[in-house]
Predict the structure.
Amino acid sequence: MSNSELSVYPQQDAETRDESTDEAPAKKQSSKKAKESGTGFRGKRLVIEELTEEQARDLEVSQRSEHTILHQVGGQRGAELRDDDDVAHRINRHRTTTLLPAGQQAKMSSDAVIQMLRLSLSDRDLCEIAETKFGIDTSTLEVFQAAGANDTFMRHLASVIQLEMEQRDAHADHMLDCFDAIVALHILRSYSNFGTPARKYDEGHQWEQDLKAIEDAKAYIQQNLAEPIKMIDVAQAVGLTKLNLARLFKEMTGQTAHQYLLETRIAHACDLLRDTKKPLASVAVESGFTTQSYFTAAFGKRMGTTPGDYRRNSAKSVDISDN
């Protein structure tokens, strides 16, 4: 599948894009169409596209003059990027960023459902912004490829871009048009020889470390379930900050650490109600609930019934199966 088939807008080389007189009607028409569909934006320099799930799952990028940022904004983990040297890069995290320099060809494929935001900026525009706005001599500029980078800045920027593209009010297009310099500076700072390369996950080493930290956090919660558990204590136990624990837990499990803690407490309470005859107050304490009233409220919200009714219904189920 060719890039022109995937793109909301057909790719153009730098010379064509600089012919503003000839391109103005096409730009106006493309912007109108994008605004109606809500799937893309074409600014003076920057092109932004929200790829459909089908496009993102089998994406082929082949451009002569544009730097392309692919940021996974949603969906499941697991994609493979194969560059023009036929080197495969496994991307094991969602919400990661992949940058393909101008002249680079690549193909991204995934068996999972993913949602992708694609930003394109020509090499000529990147150099012009670098020289005029930031005073950078681009004669030795080199932009690096990155696959599956843990790009915190891009995660926040993608959220803002999505918000502007969703509301598309009278000022949204002007706001989006201002992002060209921001994107250019981010490429220069994080993906070129003028800055510090963004943190990568190509080899999976950091992914394995982060996964182990989350599994250790789960184990800590399970082992201390009857005790008051503070997230700062969990974070310190696994060698993370409280902020990093919250971010990684959500990224890797799809739920917050607090949600996991509550669900684990409820699951433990269900086991005690079903398998023992302990008083409800004891079940509450052993499951980590500070009061029986809080236990009853939390249990009812999660299970749709009271602890007492759950125990009685469980006992009836056992009697029926025995008969």
About this structure: The mean pLDDT is 77. The longest helix spans residues 205-223. Residues 226 and 288 are 4 Å apart (CA to CA).
